[in-house]
Fold this sequence. Notes:
Elements: E1 4-10, H1 17-20, E2 21-27, E3 35-44, H2 47-54, E4 67-68, E5 72-80, E6 92-95, E7 105-109, E8 113-116, H3 121-140, E9 148-151, H4 159-168, E10 172-177, H5 180-188, E11 193-196, H6 202-209, E12 214-219, H7 224-231, E13 233-241, H8 261-265, E14 270-273, H9 283-295, E15 308-309, H10 310-322, E16 331-333
Parallel strand pairs: 9-10, 9-12, 10-11, 12-13, 13-14, 15-16
Antiparallel strand pairs: 1-2, 1-4, 3-5, 3-7, 3-16, 5-6, 6-8
Helix pairs in contact: 2-10, 3-4, 3-9, 6-7
Amino acid sequence: MSGTYRAIQLQQFAGSFREGARIVELEHRAPAPGEISIRNQFCGVNGIFDTQIARNAVDYVKIGLPTLTGVEALGVVEGVGEGVTEFAVGDAVVTTRFPGSYREINIAPVSHFVKVPDGRPEWLALASTGVSAVMALEHIGAVKNGETVAISAAAGGLGHLLVQLVHLRGCHVVAVCGGETKSQFVRSLGADRVIDYRSLSVGDVLRTEYPDKLDVAIDTVSGGIFDAFLENVATHGRVVVGGAAADLEGRPEIITAPRIAHKLYYKGASVRGFMNGLLAEHWPPVREKVFDLYAQDQLKVVFDEVRFTGLNGIFDAVERLLSGRSMGKVIVDLRS
Length: 336
């Protein structure tokens, strides 16, 4: 193999991913022993993470500049290094390892990749976001059949899968999202009660309709939605923190309020942090589970209606996700 390929490289810390990153040409080398070479076809966009690394606001990832970017991608094997037996040229594979995504070619150890049935982008969403959804709901949230479960950002890439998974468990689904179009979308996926935060107070609705009734609440937004979930958690309930979309600067909001110990102690409730990257040893059986649900038509992957192509499209896709207008999983087609 010879020649070059293109990739997005973060070259400086800046206010946005677009400001700090550039498309660069890199040498296309042959895979070393134990490595495979992948031509990426689709990448999943994690706009909040991308923005935070651009601002050097991710405490758990120490960024040394310059760095390549992107977390998740689906591609096809183009070359295999010496000693590689589990992959062959032509196999479709997925990676969820930073920074293997925002690039045309990814050359890395075989441990970074998982074989998938074919090149459809649905397998990318399932292997990345689908696994995250099950881990947050079952491994951390310990959901039980028939419980009442609240989900923030319910129309997003993670949220729309959570709604379906909870519905499959016979749970009562309380979905929080913004706008009538998104509200109709999550209802179609099985949500029992939809709270449009643009027109209703999440806290008021929960206080009136679900006082102390949330067995599980999965929040990726933080701020007032987290507060409302915590205030209405049930006895032995679990509030799962899976992100903080309202905190792009990595500087938690300073508030003056009673400590949450009293809210938790008297209910025997808990707040649980969900960081999927710390649970990698649990991924293989969960991945098989979500693949089977999809194969049995019990789980649907929905992609955002706006399509993005090429490396240049990644910048637009990041901004689309940050705008709050996207619905479903945001991906970029790298084949063109």
